[in-house]
């Protein structure tokens, strides 16, 4: 009788923990996303709203860590350490080591929570992610055509609400007047560059999945990428194609090829519907400027030890001459500066890379498709670091989390069980 009561109590406790974990997963992705949308707004009320959403996502990630960690006390110690570094950062803003440790702990927390959400609540996350994708496609159409006027760009901070909103449908280049938001729509995000990060996440998450691949969804992914006109998302689609042709399953190869085919069709439609706008967004200058703005900064820091010196590293190309001295266009640039100042971090980085691929090979031997999917997410979402200094943003790490699965798999028996259970369901 005593044993029965103990087992019943244990089962009830597990059911309660699982319900807490599922509710936390339900809140985690939307509020992390909303926090990033509102935190960069110009209105103080919206910024405060973004901070509130950020704390909700923090609490949700705490629950996901505690419920899904092998050792609850270790998980609690991690959370207390993170909060300590947060308080230290607020109390002593110029204490760089404290700030660095806070960012590291925060990144690990959101990576772990993001990975757990994919492993345990993939369908929930997929439904939330595709709903946001659908809303963004709708808003982008209104932004590009100008039908929505200034109301569809209320949340964007690139392009101003009092700028000219003109018709772009069937308007040629000689008659075209357009707002930047029409050429580079931001959807519900505050800038096109951040919407492109969402596009990369959807490419990595969708094409690495087992259950969610479908013709309709592949078409929708292609429409989204075309409407954003984000060059990094286009590159991400091509990299995903090459990766899946090499190591993907047959269904993945079919859908990435089909998606690329749809992409080429929709680019043609875009060119037909918006001839004037496409002369800018699809021009050679648009592609080269987007590429060289980042590459000039990265190359200058890597070889000259400064951002630009007297001009662009690659002579005759675009570079960010207007960017303030303490600002960066690329997250890779920020890493290079950090590596230059603290040489020991280079060794640490190389060790992490070596350790990742060692653990990746172990995971691949048992669960090849899961390992390949995690690497695809890491490559595609990680690509965004070339376009934006994103390292301090929780949303980026939550999207990147599944890419770190091999490392968490190595250290946590609980993660190994989750991976095993996920693959048993598939097989």
Explain the overall architecture.
The structure is a single chain. With 427 residues, the protein is mainly α. It folds into two domains: 192 residues, no CATH class; 159 residues, no CATH class. It is 73% helix and 0% strand. The chain is built from 18 helices and no strands.
Low-confidence stretches: 3-12
Number of distinct helices: 18
Q: N-to-C SSE series? A: HHHHHHHHHHHHHHHHHH
How far apart the termini lie comes to: 38 Å
- Report the structural category: mainly alpha
How confident is the prediction overall: mean pLDDT? 86
Helices and strands in order, then pairings?
Blueprint: H1 2-39, H2 44-67, H3 72-91, H4 96-120, H5 122-145, H6 180-183, H7 192-207, H8 215-228, H9 231-247, H10 250-273, H11 275-281, H12 284-304, H13 331-341, H14 344-366, H15 368-382, H16 394-400, H17 405-411, H18 413-426
Any descriptors?
427 residues, mainly alpha, 2 domains, 18 helices, 73% helix, disordered N terminus
Task: Please give a quick description of this structure.
Helix content is 73%, strand content 0%. It has 427 residues and is an all-alpha fold.
């Amino acid at each position: 009788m005593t044993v029965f009561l103990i087992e019943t109590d244990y089962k009830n406790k597990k059911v309660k923990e699982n319900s807490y974990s599922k509710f936390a997963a339900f809140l985690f992705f939307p509020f992390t996303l909303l926090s990033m949308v509102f935190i960069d707004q110009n209105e103080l009320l919206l910024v405060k709203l973004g901070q509130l959403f950020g704390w909700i996502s923090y609490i949700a990630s705490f629950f996901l860590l505690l419920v899904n960690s092998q050792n609850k006390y270790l998980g609690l110690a991690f959370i207390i350490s993170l909060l300590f570094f947060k308080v230290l950062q607020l109390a002593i803003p110029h204490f760089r080591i404290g700030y660095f440790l806070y960012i590291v702990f925060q990144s690990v927390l959101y990576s772990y929570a993001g990975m757990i959400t994919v492993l345990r609540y993939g369908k929930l996350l997929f439904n939330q992610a595709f709903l946001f994708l659908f809303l963004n496609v709708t808003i982008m159409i209104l932004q590009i055509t100008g039908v929505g006027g200034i109301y569809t760009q209320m949340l964007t901070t690139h392009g101003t609400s009092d700028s000219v909103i003109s018709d772009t449908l069937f308007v040629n280049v000689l008659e075209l007047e357009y707002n930047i938001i029409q050429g580079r729509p931001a959807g519900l995000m505050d800038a096109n560059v951040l919407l492109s990060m969402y596009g990369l996440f959807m490419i990595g998450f969708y094409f690495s999945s087992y259950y969610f691949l479908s013709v309709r969804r592949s078409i929708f992914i292609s429409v989204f990428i075309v409407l954003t006109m984000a060059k990094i998302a286009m590159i991400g689609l091509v990299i995903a194609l090459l990766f899946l042709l090499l190591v993907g399953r047959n269904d993945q190869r079919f859908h990435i090829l089909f998606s690329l085919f749809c992409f080429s069709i929709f680019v043609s439609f875009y060119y037909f519907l918006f001839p004037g706008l496409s002369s800018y967004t699809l021009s050679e200058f648009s592609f080269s400027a987007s590429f060289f703005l980042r590459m000039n900064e990265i190359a200058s820091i890597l070889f000259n030890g400064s951002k630009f010196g007297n001009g662009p590293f690659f002579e005759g190309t675009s570079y960010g001459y207007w960017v303030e001295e303490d600002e960066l266009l690329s997250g890779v640039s920020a890493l290079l500066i950090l590596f230059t100042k603290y040489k020991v971090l280079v060794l640490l980085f190389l060790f992490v890379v070596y350790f990742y691929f060692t653990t990746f090979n172990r995971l691949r031997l048992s669960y090849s498709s899961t390992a390949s999917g995690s690497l695809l997410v890491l490559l595609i979402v990680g690509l965004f670091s070339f376009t934006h200094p994103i390292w301090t943003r929780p949303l980026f790490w939550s999207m990147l989390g599944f890419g770190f699965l091999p490392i968490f798999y190595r250290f946590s028996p609980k993660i190994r069980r989750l991976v095993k259970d996920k693959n048993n369901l598939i097989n």
